[in-house]
Amino acid sequence: MPVPYRIDCPYCGEVIELLLDESVADQCYIEDCAVCCQGNPPAFSARQKWS
């Protein structure tokens, strides 16, 4: 099930909400900023550790 995460755009400070699926062990997610449309978008990556 997708979980909402909020990050700030490093260029304009706009809050960007990402919906990430925590059931996926390895993922990389990139979202363009809707306000400033920078060429180098903010990125989120996660790697789940299994115990």
Describe the protein's architecture and organization.
Strand 1 and strand 2 form a beta hairpin. It is elongated and about 30 Å long. 0% of the residues lie in helices and 47% in strands. The strands form two sheets. Strands 1-2 form a two-stranded antiparallel ribbon. A two-stranded antiparallel sheet has the order 3-4. It is mainly beta and 51 residues long. It has one domain. The model has no long low-confidence stretch (mean pLDDT 76). It is built from no helices and four strands. This is CPXCG motif-containing cysteine-rich protein.
Order of helices and strands: EEEE
* End-to-end distance: 21 Å
Q: What's the arrangement of strands in the largest beta sheet?
A: 1-2
Mean pLDDT, to the nearest integer, reads: 76
Total of helices: 0
Please mark out the parts with pLDDT under 50 across 5 or more consecutive residues, or reply none: none
Number of spatially distinct domains? 1
